[in-house]
Amino acid sequence: MLNEMLVMTSQGYCCFLTRHSNIRPSISVLNPSVFPINFIFRFIKQTLFNMGLFSSSSTPKRQAPAPVQSFTITQHSMMGRQSLIHDTRSPPGAPPILSVQLHQMSRPNIELYLGAGAISNPPDGSPPRTCATIDIATFGSSGRGQVRGKAIEISRASMFGGEYAVTAAGVGSLTWEPTGWGSHSWQLCDSTDTVVASARCEGFTMREMVLDMYAPGDEFYTDVLLISLLTVMRLAEKRRRKRRTAAM
Question: Where are the domains of the chain?
Answer without folding.
Answer: 3-51, 69-246
